[in-house]
Design a protein that fits this description.
Chain B: Heterotrimer of A, B and C subunits. Chain B: This is Aspartyl/glutamyl-tRNA(Asn/Gln) amidotransferase subunit C. Chain B: Keywords: ATP-binding, Ligase, Nucleotide-binding, Protein biosynthesis. The complex is a heterodimer of chains A (494) and B (95). Chain A is of the alpha/beta class. Chain A has a domain of 255 residues: Amidase signature (AS) enzymes. In chain A, 36% of the residues lie in helices and 12% in strands. In chain A, helix 4 links the parallel strand 2 and strand 3. Chain B is mostly helical. Chain B has a domain of 36 residues. In chain B, 32% of the residues lie in helices and 4% in strands. Chain B is built from 3 helices and 2 strands; from the N terminus they run αααββ. Chain B has a two-stranded antiparallel sheet. The chains are: A alpha/beta (494), B mainly alpha (95).
Chain lengths: 494, 95
């Protein structure tokens, strides 16, 4: 078999169990692909020795007949997940040198299932960003290039994960999604990215950004792979008090390909001003595909959509300012060099000034401001009330019998690296306009590649599901994937 | 709502992030821009709406209030920039 690194989880798993290939061969193919892909800057801490050791163990396990669908599958892990003994710094200088003494629940679940760790992947610092340009490792680069040859962003914050999956450096990768950080990079790279329902996947050991919004999920080459990998990532976890006490079903078993009679909502408020015609056409095309498969397409209204982005940019920074208070130069990571006579306050202030990048500093300060005396009600409480209304919009749509909602994933295809350098922060935030709403409501969403734009760059659509109905959502995504028949791959230049 | 340089200095201090005086005007402008974007929230009628804390409809889980782990000072201190004799070390604190 050639090009083993190009396989999907389902294909590789079948080949492994039939004995046609070993995990060590698969792992070596991925390690070689990583070796040749330095230009993408997707893998930031390779763990080749650990990978081979885990692959050998997986091969033994497969031989003994005790394999799970994830056994022997080489994965990339976003740098935000704590992995014992491996640098885990959420792409921040403030966590320089941090090697966790413990393992995140998600990665532990994956290792328990027999998956293989290839290394840590690039991301925006503390998952704050939409272009993977806020990283202490430097920018990650999209394997897709613009027609004029310019390098593009893979999106963010899970930009390294998306680039690694699209360039076949791994079979699949983990991501996290607080405001769109799985779905937007997936859309920018022609891959599948799923954010599960809040509470489906444990947040324990995932370096926190905004705790009421963060959720980890799979980033894969196909919808079927997302179903398989989500099943291995998800668990009921007593270490995370917000982990839902709901058993994890067999998501792959839900992939029947039959969506006849399902009601799929098209929210009119997502038709925003200045939306490129190509995105609008793609959306229409997606609706037609689902209708052709027997679903009923229904116009719906989510009246508070417009306010999701400003509400998010109050709530997420507020939570971040609190979560990131722990980086004080005392317990882990970096401490600034102190001057003569510097006390503990100077230690905090200097450590945080040199440890956090500009966007993280900005969000901490905005969060501090909206939580400070005198502004708490005007900003933070108001945003939380608007959040309640956004959730109510979804509740009412689903109460009318809607099964899922179809919307664009992003307002554009991937943009050139550096294109936003001179933009003000709010312009960058607009990237999240279609994705943040469901984070505020805690709902699952999946981005599926559906077509290419004029320049030949991938575009994605997202389906938003009912809470804890990921199986049904994945099934609808499968139908969309099959109808779209998206098979394009970036031409190798790296 | 626009933020003055003084307010920017205050918020930076509250966040325990050192900001040089020269950087304050730009910081104040940026923060003002972001807050202006948030002003849109004032258009929404939130009369009688309860502020939402979390999306999970269920009650937060509870457990027995007992010690479940511990006895690993070496592991706890292993990542500290400065640890001495089983403690985290910090600059002298004189209040």
């Amino acid at each position: 078999m050639s090009d083993l690194n190009r396989l999907t989880i389902a294909e590789a798993g079948a080949a492994l169990r039939k004995g046609e290939v070993t995990s060590l061969e698969l792992t070596d193919a991925c390690l070689a692909a990583i070796e040749g892909a330095g230009a993408l800057n997707a893998v930031v801490h390779g763990t080749p020795d650990k990978a081979r050791e885990m692959a050998r163990a997986a091969d033994a396990r497969i031989k003994s007949g005790d394999a799970t669908p994830m056994t022997g599958i080489p994965l990339g892990i976003k740098d935000v997940f704590c992995v014992k003994g491996v640098p885990s710094q959420a792409a921040s200088r403030i966590l320089d040198g941090f090697k966790p003494e413990y393992e995140s629940t998600v990665t532990q679940n994956l290792w328990d299932a027999g998956a293989v760790m290839l290394g840590k992947l690039n991301m925006d610092e503390f998952a704050m960003g939409s272009a993977n340009e806020n990283s202490c490792y430097g920018r990650a680069v999209n394997p897709w290039k613009a027609a004029d040859g310019r390098e593009l962003t893979p999106g963010g914050s899970s930009g390294g994960s998306a680039a690694a999956v699209a360039a076949d450096l791994c079979i699949a990768a983990t991501g996290t999604d607080t405001g769109g950080s799985i779905r937007q990079p997936a859309a920018f790279t022609g891959t599948v990215g799923m954010r599960p329902t809040y509470g489906r996947v444990s947040r324990w050991g995932v370096i926190a950004y905004a705790s009421s919004l963060d959720q980890a999920g799979p980033m894969t080459k196909t919808v079927r792979d997302a179903a398989i990998m989500l099943g291995a990532m998800a668990s009921v976890d007593e270490k995370d008090s917000t982990s839902a006490d709901i058993p994890v079903p067999d998501f792959e078993a839900a992939l029947t390909g039959d969506i006849r009679g399902k009601k799929i909502g098209i929210p009119r408020e997502y038709r925003v001003d200045g939306m490129p015609a190509e995105i609008d056409q793609l959306w229409q095309k997606g609706a037609d595909m689902l209708r052709d498969a027997g679903a009923e397409i229904v116009d719906i209204s989510l009246p508070h959509t417009k306010y999701a982005l400003p509400a998010y940019y109050v709530i997420a920074p507020a939570e971040a300012s609190s979560n990131l208070a722990r980086y004080d130069g005392v317990r882990y990571g970096r401490r600034a060099k102190l001057g003569q006579g510097d006390g503990i306050t100077e230690m905090y202030e200097k450590t945080r000034a040199e440890g956090f990048g500009p966007e993280v500093q900005r969000r901490i300060m905005i969060g501090t401001y909206v939580l400070s005396a005198g502004f708490y009600d005007a900003y933070y409480n108001r945003a939380r009330k608007v959040r309640a209304l956004i959730k109510r919009d979804f509740d009412e749509a689903y109460a009318q019998g809607i099964d899922s909602i179809l919307a664009p994933a992003t307002p554009s295809a991937a943009f050139p690296l550096g294109a936003m350098d001179q933009a003000d922060p709010v312009q960058m935030y607009l990237n999240d306009v279609f994705t943040v709403t469901l984070n505020l409501a805690g709902l699952p969403g999946i981005s599926v590649p559906v077509g290419l734009d004029k320049q030949g760059l991938p575009l994605g659509l997202q389906l938003i599901g009912r809470a804890f109905e990921e199986g049904e959502l994945l099934n609808q995504a499968l139908v969309l994937e099959q109808a779209a028949g998206f098979v394009a791959k970036p031409e190798r230049w790296w | 709502m626009s933020i003055t340089e003084n307010e920017a200095r205050k918020v930076a201090h509250l966040a325990r992030i050192a900001v040089e005086d020269e950087a304050l005007p730009a910081l104040a402008r940026e923060l003002s821009g972001i807050l202006q974007f948030m002003e849109q929230l004032n258009e929404v009628d939130v009369e009688g709406v309860e502020p939402m804390t979390g999306v999970t409809p269920m009650r937060l889980k509870r457990r027995e209030d007992v010690v479940t782990t511990g006895g690993m000072p070496g592991q706890i201190l292993s990542n500290a920039p400065d640890a001495r004799e089983g403690f985290f070390a910090v600059p002298k604190v004189v209040e």
